[in-house]
Fold this sequence. Notes:
The chain is of the alpha+beta class. Helices cover about 30% and strands about 30% of the residues.
Amino acid sequence: MASLEPKPVSASRITLAQLMQPQHANNLGTVHGGVIMKLVDEAGALAATRHAGHRVVTVAVDQMMFQHPIRLGHLVILTAEVSYVGRTSMEVEVQVVAENPLTGERVHTNTAYVVYVAVDEHGKPTPVPPLLLETEAQRQRWEQAKARQAFRLQQRAQMRRTAAAQEESA
Length: 170
Ligand SMILES: CC(C)(COP(=O)(O)OP(=O)(O)OC[C@H]1O[C@@H](n2cnc3c(N)ncnc32)[C@H](O)[C@@H]1OP(=O)(O)O)[C@@H](O)C(=O)NCCC(=O)NCCS
């Protein structure tokens, strides 16, 4: 049984760095967006797993916008931090930065919000520890994340109503 003692954001924060190589390229010779999406999910899942002390599954990914192409030979640095927790779910904010290792120049390429659910050995949602908010920035991020989560749940309810109506009319 994992502990349900409150945990600070710093206890699960994680930074991953990956060198972009030819296998990461798209047809234009820059980095394929799907590579970044996968790294975002991996970094986010690691932070969520650390917080939960359980395995986690991805349940929602907010829209991702890529503001700058990333070049081969550059380093992608992802920082993932739990921003909000519910009973069994956690929102993780993942910041993506690309660094030219020759010059040290860094560009923020995108921020993604990913929701994970902690699951037990049967794949059922299981409770996660509360998040200990220690700074004003963390408290503000929590409030913003709470609003995003409420919006996602509204969208889920809408999707379910649409699916039920389609089934009825089929
Ligand atoms: C994640 C999963 C176990 C949740 O099961 P469920 O029956 O929907 O469970 P619940 O309705 O109790 O939801 C569990 C939690 O997830 C949250 N959640 C569910 N759907 C969500 C969504 N679309 N967006 C945000 N949060 C969501 C709920 O709010 C709840 O959070 P809380 O406990 O903190 O209040 C189930 O949906 C699942 O297995 N999904 C597939 C996951 C997967 O395979 N991911 C890989 C991508 S292919």
